[in-house]
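Reading a protein record of the kind used here takes only a little practice. To see the layout at work, look at the sequence and tokens printed below.
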Amino acid sequence: MKEELKKKLSPEQYRILVEKGTERPFTGEYLDNKDKGVYSCAACETPLFDSNTKFDSGSGWPSFYDVVDGGNVELIEDKSHGMHRIEVVCANCGGHLGHVFNDGPQEETGLRYCINSASLDFKEQ
């Protein structure tokens, strides 16, 4: 599986999705994307986020307040780097997407899915 992903993904996508890396803030391809469509996992194409739930959090990464389908992501406790966070991974392939925080829009879910652009593919609708 890892060899297939090395062929399919760019080195940056592989580093983030497989090795649980993070792209530098304010550098991701989809940070300022305002087009309507669906963001899917770059590794396996599982639909993850709808553009209607995307918002500007000022964090430097694409942020969403909800997922397309709760069964498409898995939330995992992450105590790495001396912090306590909740990691967001693709439920289909296990690819690292980012983290979720409780500081999103309160009028919606109150959540902020802080997601690496490199872990996503975008299909305009």
